[in-house]
Design brief:
297 residues; alpha/beta; 10 helices; binds zinc ion
Amino acid sequence: MKYLNWIFIYIILLFNANSKEINIITTYQYMANIVENIGGDRVKVTALANSKWNPHTIVPKPSFIAKMRTADLLIINGAQLEIGWLPQLIRQANNPKIQFESVGFLDLSKFVSLIEIPKEVSRALGDVHPEGNPHYYLDYMNIFPIAEAIKNKLIELYPENQEYFLDNFNRFKNKLNEKIKIWETNLIKLKGTKVIEYHKIFDYFIKRCEMSLAGTLEPLPGIPPSSRHIKEVEKLINQENIKFILQDVYNPDDAAKYLSKKYNIKLLILPHDVGATNDAYDIFSLFDSIIDRLTND
Ligand SMILES: [Zn+2]
């Protein structure tokens, strides 16, 4: 009987230990991977959105609220990328730790410079980028300030782990620097290359490697291509030397396929997040696989 009591006490202790775990929720997969790199085995991180879905229009599952109820820290992309699905979940989860002004809430868009900030907000036209382009993490140079913000937040919340988080952060930063050297050598040949993309999702990447964006298949971010707009794009294709059409994994690709076939332009399906394609399994291989697809021809 005494033996059974000990087992019982042991189980209770085990449950208590687990409940003290640092519980982090991120909205997208790429941030979860950066958190894993810095938080290591001292944190448990869960990303809400499946990276095969359109990041603007995630359909929440009931399990999202349950996960958010026990979270110590919520990390978001911000710049309105989650505006259509996250605010009501935060309200419903009713967890004081992760409300907008709480210490356990981190908006990564505050640590980078956004591009394409419109002079006037044009949501009436259906634009899903009213505050500027929210897909900033696809510039690999923006991974530095993002990772630093995550490191600083973890240290602020759990100062007892400062040395551990700092070591992991420095290791992550060194690896990123090494990878960037390789990426930039491979990217030289893309300078000046003209591309068309479906949604304005790869703009930061295009800018970083000095490619040139000639046009988009969506007339406005979030508005599907109309036949009238596609005719405009065809005019553009006739005037410019377009090398690639860039398509994400979740939007319909019929317009891109049609133009690719008609004008003999290479269509590339690129991952936009960790897990969007099988070879993009972490933040480093996300950029590896984008760059491989653009440079392997
Ligand atoms: Zn977008």
